[in-house]
Write a structure and sequence with these properties.
The protein contains 19 helices and 35 strands. Strands 1, 23, 24, 28, 31, 34 and 35 form a 7-stranded mixed β-sheet that branches. A 7-stranded parallel β-sheet has the order 14-15-13-17-18-19-20, sandwiched between helices. A 5-stranded antiparallel β-sheet has the order 2-25-33-29-30, with no helix packed on it. It folds into 4 domains: about 100 residues, Alpha-Beta Plaits (2-Layer Sandwich); about 80 residues, Alpha-Beta Plaits, CATH 3.30.70; about 325 residues, Peptidase S8/S53 domain (Rossmann fold, 3-Layer(aba) Sandwich), CATH 3.40.50; about 180 residues, no CATH class. The chain is an alpha+beta fold and about 750 residues long. A hairpin with a 5-residue loop joins β4 and β5.
């Protein structure tokens, strides 16, 4: 086997690597427990009781919701007021410093008595963390967007709204509150105007027809109602096309792939003879008169021919099969009659399609978004739905980060005062999906940005709870300063098979999907999570210098631009070794690999040198009830050096990622800057100056669930790449040393490597 075509190594765990966790820390007080503090908290609970008195008088067993705000330094799970809430249990959250609690008359009164005479030190510590306790008021439930739309043009939402009900994490209470809400709807004369819609255990809501804004106020006043909003409408993105005169022969060097890709869009044109042979199935949900195949055809052509059409050097490509889902109607008045599809109808179509095709079609493209729905702290409903789809049907969805279609477009570096209007849009916040932004492939003296810089229209992150979104970026186009596209867009095929230029994250998304599908195809044992980790690891290593330039770059680039060379992603060379750890970690323990064989070739002048890249991917349990705490487990990884001190103590220093630079390790700082609770973590460090020689290297992986959550075990994929820029054979050095330490390693071979031996 060639020294530049060496297999990635899968490292199997040893039982001795699993170490029980040490005991917890001490109680933390955030102030003194004074008579005044007791009075203040008692008054707040009394006000809560008073606010809901009508509800409790009507039925003592009907629960209501209170909102506790805690101090910024008390948002870590270890400081949550769980003891204070022993009678008013925590049922969710929205912001990091907010907690929703279930209340009724009895448990409020019991809590008041305990506040007057705290039963424990922990209870007292909880009291010092409290800032405020409030009921959920009707005006809080109405979405700001709905409020503004209603005032401007009530008919724009087609007088249909979406009402969501609190989940009390108890089957009996949930049955009661739904019965209560339905009875209230009937008493308000909505008995023939509502429909219950549900998907899995994450999404359940009411679709209600209203006639005035007064109706909305009435609905928001119902106890148990969490939010009142409206159903988003989707249509094909407004992407710009420009015909070109370039005549390119489509690449004849390819392999037919067994992988099938689903495209949920406006439909692939049957008039495009370069694509038609690859369409193996089609489902049409849009009337012929409203169909516009231009967008989906460009997407499909990018998957099949994107590299050759754009003169991008890459190995011989695969030709994939397509499942063509015609679900999104035309939105271009110049093309023909226009229409849109509502959020609930789109969800219904997607689930129906998954039930039919997910057993054979594991990779899906969804290039759409809602211009007026930028992602903020909480998950969008469509984002949550896509997470449910991916978990239920074991598929991987690719979504676009969305396009900025209004001025100003972003320069690079970003101009001051641009604000938040370039934030990514729903459903780009989907945690399970791979979200793709855009960078420029072509530039000119007059272009807004240069090669590899974020496209002026590409929306940025972060996603909900500061999760890195977009995950990756790829080539999607550019504009001139006069907003012209000619010569600056990416090239694809139109409905008739002619080459055209286009701009948009819609077209960067299938580029990254093509790379993912190629990785998946090359795997002898295909694995969706491993393929995802490989793609993101490739992006991080391919963009390592770019992301190190400025910490804010990750908001625009995600983890970077994945390599166009699939073989480069899936193999090692003698001077670069990639190890994969695909293991499970259990609650109450951690994985600790002492004496990691860092190569002796990378020791110079009593210092460690080299490059280290590390990517961690896992699938945490998700729960929409908890807002910014949507991801319910955190897995952390640390790779660093240790030294033995007097008395046998061990001094450990994390090198990748480098130990926190923040003044204090508060939860908010770790969430915003340290990938905490993020299901993808990727790091890179080049030891330019070297780091001090130590007694050895250690790899540690930890699992932390949210407060009160028990998780028996959690699977993760960890990829570590160590590279020597001087060309030494560290591949043999590390793999041999692993065997000497008793580790079993298996080759993650590719179909390409098998073909090379034949």
């Amino acid at each position: 086997m060639s020294e530049n075509n060496l297999p990635i190594k899968l490292v199997l765990p040893k039982t001795t690597d699993i170490v029980p966790n040490a005991g917890g820390g001490q109680l933390k007080f955030f102030g003194e427990v004074t008579p005044q503090l007791k009075r203040e908290i008692t008054d707040k609970f009394e006000n809560l009781l008073s606010f809901y008195s009508d509800v409790f008088n009507e039925n003592e067993s009907i629960p209501a919701v209170g909102k506790i705000t805690v101090k910024p330094k008390a948002i870590a799970k270890s400081h949550k007021p769980s003891d204070l809430c022993r009678n008013c249990p925590i049922i969710g959250s929205e912001e990091l410093n907010e907690i929703y609690i279930k209340v009724n008359r009895k448990n409020i009164q019991e809590t008041i008595e305990m506040v007057k005479n705290p039963p424990s030190q922990k209870f007292q510590a909880n009291m010092t963390a409290i800032v405020d306790i409030q009921p959920i008021k009707p005006e809080e439930k109405i979405s700001p967007t709905l409020h503004s739309i209603v005032q401007e043009d009530f008919n724009s939402i087609k007088k249909v709204i979406k009402l969501k009900v609190f989940d009390f994490e108890d089957d009996f209470d949930n049955a009661q509150i739904w019965d209560y809400v339905i009875r209230k709807l009937c008493s308000l004369h909505f008995e023939d105007k509502y429909e219950i819609i549900s998907y899995g255990d994450q999404l359940k809501f009411l679709k209600i027809e209203v006639t005035s804004y007064d109706d909305i106020i009435k609905l928001a006043s119902i106890n148990g109602v969490k939010t009142v909003g409206f159903f988003q409408e989707y249509s094909l993105p407004q992407n710009v096309f420009s015909a070109t005169e370039i005549q390119t022969l489509l690449d004849s060097e390819y392999r037919d792939s067994d992988v099938t890709i689903g495209i949920i869009d406006g439909g692939i044109s049957d008039d495009n003879l370069f694509l038609k042979p690859y369409i193996v199935a089609r489902e049409e949900y849009v009337n012929k008169v409203y169909q516009n195949p231009q967008h989906a055809t460009f997407i499909a052509s990018t998957i099949q021919y994107g590299n050759v059409l754009n003169s991008i050097s890459a190995p011989a490509a695969y030709r994939f099969k397509f499942v063509d889902i015609v679900a999104i109607p035309n939105s271009d008045k110049d093309f023909g009659p226009t229409d849109s599809i509502t959020e609930d109808d789109l969800m219904e179509i997607i689930e129906e399609v998954m039930e039919k095709y997910s057993s054979t079609t594991k990779i899906w493209n969804l290039s759409l978004g809602i211009e007026n729905k930028p992602c903020d702290g909480s998950m969008s409903d469509l984002g949550v739905f896509l997470d449910y789809i991916q978990d239920t049907y074991y598929v991987q969805v690719f979504v676009s980060s969305g396009n900025v279609n209004s001025l100003p477009l972003r320069n690079w570096p970003p101009q001051k005062g641009i604000g938040e209007h370039d934030r990514l849009i729903s459903p780009a916040d989907s945690v399970r999906a791979i979200t793709v932004g855009s960078v420029a492939l072509f530039d000119s003296a007059d272009s807004i940005v240069k090669f590899n810089e974020p496209s002026p229209f590409s929306r940025r992150g972060p996603g909900a709870n500061y999760i890195v979104k977009p995950d990756v970026v790829d080539y999607g186009g550019n504009y001139s300063t006069s907003y012209k596209i000619d010569g600056l867009g990416v090239k694809g095929l139109n409905s008739s098979g002619k080459i055209v230029e286009g701009n948009g994250t819609s077209y960067s998304t299938p580029r990254s999907l093509q790379k993912y599908a190629s990785i998946y195809e090359e795997m002898i044992e295909p694995d969706l999570l491993l393929a995802k980790a490989m793609l993101i690891h490739s992006a991080r290593m391919n963009s390592r210098e770019l992301l190190d330039e400025h910490p804010d770059n990750i908001k625009y680039y995600g983890f970077g631009i994945p390599s166009a060379d699939t073989q480069d992603i899936l193999q090692c060379s003698k001077d670069c070794v990639t190890l994969v750890f695909k293991q499970k970690i259990s609650h109450g323990s951690h994985l600790e690999m002492y004496d990691f064989p860092y190569p002796k070739s990378l020791i110079k002048n009593n210092k460690y040198i080299g490059e280290i890249g590390m990517t961690l991917a896992y699938l945490p349990p998700l729960d929409q009830k908890y807002g910014r705490e949507y991801c319910r487990t955190n897995i952390d990884v640390s790779f660093g050096t240790y030294s033995y001190k007097d008395g046998g103590k061990i001094d450990y220093k994390g090198q990748v990622p480098l130990e926190s630079k923040w003044d204090e390790k508060f939860e908010s700082a770790r969430v915003k800057h340290g990938f905490k609770w993020s299901p993808i973590k990727s790091y890179y460090r080049k030891l330019n100056r070297g780091i001090k020689l130590a007694d050895g290297w250690k790899l540690r992986v930890d699992l932390t669930p949210r407060d009160g959550l028990y998780v028996p075990s959690q699977e993760f994929v960890l990829i570590i790449t160590i590279k020597d820029s001087n060309g030494n054979d560290i591949y043999s050095e590390i793999t041999n040393a692993l065997r000497e330490r008793g580790y079993i390693t298996n080759n993650i071979e590719t179909k390409f490597q098998v073909r090379q031996r034949q």
